């Protein structure tokens, strides 16, 4: 489309608006900082692709592309507290240091796949990918 003529690409503009609205709501509800916007928007897309739409005869975009229902059993409350196992604990390097922490305390900010989660660890100020995580879906970032 030509510059500054969003009307020529209305469907894509509308989808982008829906995703940004969903991301904004998710960020505010989870009380997450603005600097995580990229991960929040990616999570909003991930969730939208697995959400049934009336215009698709109640099929999700994922289902229309792959001809099978998406797995959603791994979805957790967005922004909930997560205890992600440390790399040392995963490699069992802490056997001699029994009082060292075995998990990072973080918050769910996205999904890499059905068994890999994106966890934001505030004290490291970084997002880590892990599958070894326990969630507390009733606690959120404050």
UniProtKB/TrEMBL annotation:
Domain Retroviral polymerase SH3-like stretches: 80-141
Cross-referenced Pfam families: SH3_retrovirus
Coiled-coil residue windows: none
InterPro entries reported for this sequence: Retrotran_Ty1/copia-like (IPR039537), RNaseH-like_sf (IPR012337), RNaseH_sf (IPR036397), SH3_retrovirus (IPR057670)
Key words, A-Z: DNA integration, DNA recombination, DNA-directed DNA polymerase, Endonuclease, Hydrolase, Magnesium, Metal-binding, Nuclease, Nucleotidyltransferase, RNA-directed DNA polymerase, Transferase
Species annotation: Photinus pyralis (Common eastern firefly)
Protein name in UniProt: Retroviral polymerase SH3-like domain-containing protein
Any single GO BP term: DNA integration
Lineage: Eukaryota, Metazoa, Ecdysozoa, Arthropoda, Hexapoda
GO MF entry, a single one: metal ion binding
């Amino acid at each position: 489309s030509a510059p500054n003529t969003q009307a020529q690409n209305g469907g894509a503009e509308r989808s982008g608006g829906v995703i940004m609205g969903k991301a904004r709501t998710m960020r505010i509800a989870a009380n997450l900082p603005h600097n995580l916007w990229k991960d929040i928007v990616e999570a909003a897309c991930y969730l939208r692709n697995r959400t049934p739409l009336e215009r698709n005869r109640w099929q999700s975009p994922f289902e229309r592309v792959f001809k099978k229902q998406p797995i959603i059993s791994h979805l957790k409350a967005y922004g909930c507290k997560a205890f992600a196992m440390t790399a040392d604990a995963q490699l069992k390097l802490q056997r001699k240091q029994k009082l060292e922490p075995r998990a990072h305390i973080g918050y769910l900010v996205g999904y890499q796949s059905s068994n890999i989660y994106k966890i934001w660890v505030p004290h490291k100020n970084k997002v880590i990918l892990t599958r070894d995580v326990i969630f507390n879906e009733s606690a959120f970032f404050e």
